[in-house]
Specification:
It is a single chain. With 270 residues, this protein is of the alpha+beta class. The chain has two domains: 60 residues, no CATH class; 189 residues, Heat Shock Protein 90 (2-Layer Sandwich), CATH 3.30.565.60. It has seven helices and ten strands. The strands form three sheets. The chain has a six-stranded mixed beta sheet with strand order 4-3-7-8-10-9. It is globular. The chain starts with 25 loop residues before the first helix and ends in a 10-residue tail after the last strand.
């Protein structure tokens, strides 16, 4: 864990040891600050992507590494997503894995590729009645909100813990490291808005929706900070599968969201 001399800065604003401005990729930080930043170093400091440690040495911040470096996991070993699609309903890496991926890179890429993983590994039933009608296993809009919330709000200070997406025939489980922030509870999640990583969420709010998410998400940017992510997850998943998603907190340190899969339709009933 990193510490500043005052320990008053949020973790995401703290300096990452052994980094410098050279570890921040210009293409990545330009997408956050815009092309008009005439003094890059000054602009990076102002955006809190760059800071100085206690000795005055210029170093990238945690948020800088997460959003503007090509490989955040080099400095924050758990800053990636482990995604696995299992055959059946039980995790068994020896007998039942179908597909597995380690999703790395800046956080906006992790969100897009996390959604793409769920999309490519879920089933979609279809019937002709008289035209083709598709019935996806999961609501992709709910899946996007779930992945985006996990990436934006997890606790990056927990060493060695990563986001896990475990996909089964009957459900999708998303594990996010960290306790609920700021007195949030499982029961209050649909009604209250709070974030652990205010700087990260602000930066994600500047990243456009692209790729696999472009035809799924009904907004322009990855984050809008309106607090409607959890209600969308609950509503859209319930409408599709008939079962409300479940949130559980393990040992006060890891949040699990379970989204239940929709059952394939009976062609005779449609």
């Amino acid at each position: 864990m990193f510490h500043t001399p005052t320990d008053l800065l949020r973790f995401e604003e703290q300096a990452v040891p052994e980094t410098s401005v050279k570890d921040l990729n210009e293409r990545l930080w330009r997408r956050l600050l815009g092309p008009l930043a005439l003094n890059p170093v000054e602009a990076l400091h102002k955006a809190k992507l760059l800071t100085r440690d206690g000795s005055g040495k210029e170093q990238a911040t945690v948020a800088g590494v997460l959003m503007a470096s090509l490989d955040p996991h080099l400095w924050l070993p758990g800053a990636y997503i482990e995604a696995v699609r299992y055959r059946g309903t039980h995790p068994d890496s020896y007998l039942h894995p179908i597909n597995a991926s380690r999703i790395e890179g800046p956080l906006d890429r992790q969100i897009r590729e996390g959604l793409a993983f769920i999309r490519s590994n879920m089933s979609t039933a279809a019937i002709k009645a008289p035209g083709r009608i598709e019935f996806p296993q999961f609501s992709l809009r709910a899946a996007f909100e779930a992945v985006a919330n996990a990436v934006a709000h997890r606790d990056y200070s927990i060493h060695g813990s990563k986001i896990r997406i475990l996909q089964f025939d009957d459900r999708c489980e998303i594990y996010s490291p960290g306790a609920l922030p700021n007195s949030l509870t499982i029961d209050s999640l649909p009604f209250r808005q709070s974030t652990r990583n205010e700087l990260v969420t602000s930066l994600l709010a500047r990243c456009p929706v692209e790729g696999a998410a472009a035809d799924v998400v009904r907004r322009q940017f990855l984050m809008e900070k309106r607090g409607d992510g959890v209600p969308v997850i609950l509503r859209e998943s319930l409408e599709l599968s008939g079962r409300e998603p479940e949130y559980r907190l393990f040992d006060g340190e890891e949040l699990l969201l379970t989204i239940w899969a929709a059952k394939p339709p009976d062609p005779d009933s449609v």
